[in-house]
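Predict the assembly for these two chains.
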Amino acid sequence: MESVGGSHQNWLAWMRRALQLASLAEGHTSPNPLVGAVVLDAEGRLVGEGFHARAGEPHAEPVALDQAGDAARGGTIIVTLEPCCHQGRTPPCTEAILAAGVRRVVVALTDPDPRVAGGGLQRLRDAGLEVISGVLAAEAAHQNRAFLHRVRTGRPWGVLKWAMSLDGRTALPNGESQWISGPSARSWVHGMRAQCDAVIVGGGTVRADDPLLTSRGRRSPEPLRVVFSRSLDLPAGAQIWDQQLASTLLGYPIQAESALSADLRAVVQAQGVAMEALDASEPELLLTALSKRGCNRVLWECGPGLAAAAIQQGCVQEIEAVIAPKLLGGELARTPLADFGFTAMDQVLQLRDQDVMRLGDDLLMRAQLT
Amino acid sequence: MESVGGSHQNWLAWMRRALQLASLAEGHTSPNPLVGAVVLDAEGRLVGEGFHARAGEPHAEPVALDQAGDAARGGTIIVTLEPCCHQGRTPPCTEAILAAGVRRVVVALTDPDPRVAGGGLQRLRDAGLEVISGVLAAEAAHQNRAFLHRVRTGRPWGVLKWAMSLDGRTALPNGESQWISGPSARSWVHGMRAQCDAVIVGGGTVRADDPLLTSRGRRSPEPLRVVFSRSLDLPAGAQIWDQQLASTLLGYPIQAESALSADLRAVVQAQGVAMEALDASEPELLLTALSKRGCNRVLWECGPGLAAAAIQQGCVQEIEAVIAPKLLGGELARTPLADFGFTAMDQVLQLRDQDVMRLGDDLLMRAQLT
């Protein structure tokens, strides 16, 4: 039996199922990772399934073990991330596994959280269980790339989204931009927001578009709406200050505080908008603050200046570009990104893992920054 | 038998074969259309195939009928375009069909050439043959869209091609543009040129890039290289004046003639570069001239100013945009198209029939202008 258990091959299908279970909570577990678990009895029959639904709720392992009950004894638990061995908001999962009498633990990824970091697997090995790790590790790392990135860098995974015409324009020369993309693409944006913990715009977008920035109910609670303003020159009547639909955070450099108008101060205080004073007007400082507020993944929906600054500070890991079958033209028309100062083709930013899908008449091209 | 013959359904597979035969000469038949033909004997067995290979060479029908010989008697000819009934460089195909003793003629499209225009089918009906037309007419019209467009408008079908980064840039702010796209896309461009009768650039492209503009031997003869220059301020040492690899035509407004430098005049005359003086510097006048020179399809490989002017004058029917997985950035970086003067989203140019394919790491998005 040792040799059967030891082969990764035997666990691929079950690990795929565990990854599938984990994905059901996509966008809802921050600051925690996505985790899914499957429990088999001693004869290898499926007796329990579970996933981590939301921070503060039970981890995947106890959910699956509870479903299995006594049938877990002598069986196997397949889990997408190393079980935790520390007391958090919930008890350590290693102890739940030992209590259930499971004989074998199959894991995709080691948990990079310094409170775990291999300690969970060691605890299980020390207790005499067979431990197999690294099964579908790449797939699991891709699924939890936002969480892993935050743990590694202290900043959430950044997704930069824009919609442009086939000739690379995000607005007409007069600033008009509604709507370049079609209804399917706009609906996709709402879904994308639902996968993120925060949606960030600059002051210019608030002034020009007065956006709502919600997922239109696809996520509950709605993602945090973040206005990143260098000047605090913002309209007091903007929709985004209304906190009934969704919460808003106003990020700004501490130096700008005196520029806050009495009108805006009154609205922000009355509505309970969160304020985040930063040492400087830097995207990376904003993201560090959002990481501390529990964000694993943020969506940049900003203009070319802030987008280019965010890229330059390593705050964007993924591009999602909607390309509409239209031609706008125009030397003065807005484009997705401001200057990087490149003077030779070998300096430009290379994207990888590019992929394309259709959104109605529009095309979505997504890629990761190298 | 009349009812069997009369149903389009019976002829779809054979018409597809005829279209396939026609496509073998793609890019080589101008100013003539693409035409393919299949001959079946009286029992419905394939006895002849043919296509029109090049202007001045035999039409598809006599090629297929020659192959069939006596077996054509009492049989059927399936042909993608109405047989001609006039004496051109070759004798009328209607007479060849009658001489072969064919009993039934199945056709996709009526020939819009005013010398034919239904007259070919009428001649065959009058002679007592069964004539079925309209079989796969849409497919046949798509295949011959360049020829049909030229007959309808007096101007060749225009394809506008560009390569840009994912943020819509065709060059860095300093003008550097080699290479945005990868080797597969550059090889695809050579193939695209081979499908066209002429490749058009503006003077700016000759000055900046000194391009060769050939299909790298994929078409023989190479497509005509056209330099469209408003000012005739062109380098006498440009590669494009060398007529050994390919022929070149210099199009310019008659008013600019006095600006032609002695150096350039000497080179152009020594090399035998064709000159086309136009009444004004208008893309549509250039295309009318190219139509008279037998061009069915031209490829615009020009900068944003000429590209926008060509679109505005209805000289572009199809866009082929290569999108590279790179970010260039830059307010001053070149984009595909100059201003159209649009001020509202309902004025912008809509594309249709958009399609996407991969070219190595790059993406090709193609669409037609409505």
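Chain B has a mean pLDDT of 94. Chain B touches chain A through 52 residues (CB under 8 Å).
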